[in-house]
Amino acid sequence: MNYSFLKNFFTAYGLSTVIIAVICSVCTMLLSKALKDKLAVQIKTQLPFLLAIIFQFAYDMIFVLHAFEFSESAFAAGILSGSLSVIFNSFILRIKDGEYIGLSATALLIEGLIEGVVPESCIAATAMAVESIIAKQSEEIEKEQLVNEIVNVLKVNTEGEFNEIELRKTAKLIVEAVDSL
Fold first, then answer.
1. pLDDT, tens digit, 9 for 90 and up, residues 127-153
2. How far is CA 81 from CA 24, 67, 117, in A?
């Protein structure tokens, strides 16, 4: 990692977005540890995005002086911060477990979103399969068709533990999160 990488990273995402993502990452990890068995899988998956949107609106109220103006740009920045937070969490967990981090940022994001939905033994393979589906899709194909293909991959790997609605919600979250990157 060199200076130009960091410069490009902060230029692309903005310092405030990265700071909010780090704060969300820490909060998500703390809440996940504190409420380990009490949080449903879907809530754990959506928690970084919810926190990021709340923190982004708070940032806009305090520093941008958009008091109680819920702008679309703040919402989009919150989704981006949530996506970065999931990537940071996946990255940190891989470092903590001493695993190789050869995955792309997109695969790390997908891996973080399907954690708890897919058995741990096949999370990385499923994330890479979903990433390849997303990479092959052109922009002409509707998001709904992409969601359907992701649901099919998740169905194969969840061993029937989750119903179609839960898998569809996870797939939609994956598509929106990857789009925000």
1. 888 888 887 775 656 777 888 888 888
2. 8, 20, 22
